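Case 889 in the screening queue. Each case pairs one protein sequence with one candidate compound; here the compound is magnesium ion. For every case the pipeline is the same: read the inputs, emit a complex structure as tokens, and attach any notable structural observations.

Predict complex for case 889.
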Amino acid sequence: MTKWVYTFGDGTAEGTADMRDLLGGKGANLAEMCNLGLPVPPGLTITTEACNWYLGNARAYPDELAEQVNTALAHIGKVAGRDFADAKRPLLLSVRSGARASMPGMMDTVLNLGLNDESVLALAEGVGDERFAYDSYRRFIQMYSDVVMGLDHEVFEEILEDEKARFGHELDTELTADEWKQVIARYKSVIEEELGQAFPQDPQQQLWGAIGAVFSSWTNARAVTYRQLHDIPSGWGTAVNVQAMVFGNLGDGSATGVAFTRNPSTGENTLYGEFLVNAQGEDVVAGIRTPQNITEAARIEAGSDKPSLEKLMPDAFSEFLGICNRLENHYKDMQDLEFTIENGKLWMLQTRAGKRTARAGLRIAVDLAEAGMITKQEAIGRIDPASLDQLLHPTIDPSVSRDVIGSGLPASPGAATGEIVFTPDEAVEKSEAGKKVILVRVETSPEDIHGMHAAQGIVTSRGGMTSHAAVVARGMGKPCVSGAGNIRVDIRRKLLLTESGPLKEGEIITVDGSSGQVLRGSVPMLHPELSGDFGRLMEWADGSRRMKVRTNAETPADANVARKFGAEGIGLCRTEHMFFEDDRIVAMREMILAGDEEGRRTALAQLLPMQRADFVELFEIMKGLPVTIRLLDPPLHEFLPKTDEEIAEVAEAMKVEEELLRQRLEALHEFNPMLGHRGCRLAVSYPEIAEMQARAIFEAAVEAGAKTGEHVVPEIMIPLVGMMTELEYVKKHIEKVANDIMEEAGQKIDYLIGTMIELPRAAIRADVIAEAAEFFSFGTNDLTQTTFGISRDDASSFLSTYQKKGIIERDPFISLDIAGVGQLIRMAAEKGRAGRPDIKLGICGEHGGDPTSIHFCEELALDYVSCSPFRVPIARLAAAQAALKGEDA
Ligand code: PEP
Ligand code: MG
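Case 889 output:
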């Protein structure tokens, strides 16, 4: 018989922390906390397998489930001293989702389940507070009707507003028990009117409704989007946690809160958290009331006049502090905790590895390793390489004066500038149109995720450090200021109201998520500091790494940035990018449009000194490191004039008739330029181009070598080779130039000639091609394009549909298609080594900076990966993780 249900409570549990695939993160950790003897309200977890069964069987439950749930409920009842079916001593339940990976706020929750017209009386009597009991009942009706019965919560909000006005109250807390009863009566009748059925009174019916709703919420639109953004497979499913309710809203001796064992923004080793007196869990995250600090130190730092938990409930606080330390030591990682204090008694509701900024992640990993709690290798494995991106982006130059228009909490660090938008849809629209935007909201909710994703930064006028906006922005690595109380958002008139006047939609602001300030206009930014924890972890990573990390760069600026980020050479210098500058494009056009070889050679002679100077500079910057220079690759007409004005200008410069020029342009037109006259095919047609480039490279090598005293060994790379004969033909011309220059310079030049593998035929014939190539660099952009037969320039229009429809998991132009393109690479690597055992192998397509693809490169034992400068640190870390994983295996 399948076991679908696992119980926990009273110091024991059927599950453990390592059962998260089956029990979800929340369920596994609740079990673990019980096993550690911590105070956890008793409960049961229904497995993720049950969810998948339910979703795969037309929303029916597996046969044995009901019986297993009932047995578990009886166990919970025994521990709690109450009975679910007993209206006189009711056991009230919370029903919550809990997937393998945390998906905050994406799925559904029902609290106070089990309340009905009868048990509400018992609750009132039991806690001695009738008002509390009816408030709980109406909350339950509202939540249940929304989550399970699908009735929009606004219906209830309208009734509540209406009743408050009728009774002359402003706040919910002013309603008396009798007034709540009247609200409840209206709630019930609106449910009957709208849905044609009564609100269920039977606790069993309530429970199964809630379980089904939580399972189904796995497939709601919010959850689906979240999974897509975070690469969470749809097949995981969610577990359901059913737990005895504890109440943080039983009066001033009760409270509820969330805490991190270390600061999730900076990583500092101090307990960090917020709580609300007399409140239920959702109130803290909802950001409606501004929470209080847990520790006295944090309260003083925040300048808050509301008492800390440490002062207000010292006993519960010190027990909590002990539990925090225990959990952190147990899990050997920073924990994110939820707790409730019911009449002075502390209950733990959740623990999990806390989400943190990249900066905090680094600091925590380094601190834990230095404290000996984890090894350096574990520290390396703790950091998501992609998260380093957050650290590599600009912050506001501290020396400039700031025009501060609002301030709030520094909810997620970094800085960004953009146009003000007020709705998530506008954020998406404008960003798709190429604009940078800042999303400004009163507060955010899970419905806003797409807009937050599209925005550069987020500002909210309400909410704390654990509000939705803060948590999600930190996860996304976007700067966020939350709870900026001195601004107002007038969404109707699309105005941001500040003390220094209103700002309209489209006006530019800057968010500084590190200081919590919102500034008018754009401000100068500084590049990040790469020392400290970052430097330490990178040093450890470099010590564990086998593959080299190079960069794709052709400008001195990029090459310098890449070196600062630790690049160990250039893996791809796309020389065509060097021909677009004003003075060069004219000579380039003259070369292309020349009618014969002589004309081309004359134009090329003008380009030679410019190319040479470029290469000298690159060799100097990369002193002592390898530099791979690729010969001209794109189809020639990419360089040609397009507008009438440009054509007239070029005709004039070349002193030819415009008409003649147009004829030549027409002749160069190609139907399918990506598969046309490009790559080595250009060098076969016009070897003089390759000769000029080779001359520039060799002369630069001699010159830079003399200048720096460091011998330069250029690596010349021939693109888009499909046949060994193409490579041999071009190679011969390059070798001739090399010999000429060695003679001219009277010195020997060491160099390598290799090719890109970016056509399936090249992969298939790699053993033969390797005879002529000293190195291969996998051009996975073109190789993906040519293997799939999908144009890399047109793919985005339909690949996103493929992803939405589940036809592909990830865009193969971003993350290598290991099953297909990867197999060609594997074959080419093997054949290449068979043809030339010491062949040097690397990758220089976009995938060279993608962590998953880098793991694959390590598996194939490539010598290096090459990626854009800002991805170099990511690649260094990913390469280290890949090497360590290889060691484990
Ligand atoms: C490639 O095709 O992967 C490559 C690196 O070259 P490019 O992107 O310039 O075509
Ligand atoms: Mg290419």
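Case 889 observations:
- The CA atoms of residues 555 and 681 lie 25 Å apart.
- The two ends are 34 Å apart (CA to CA).
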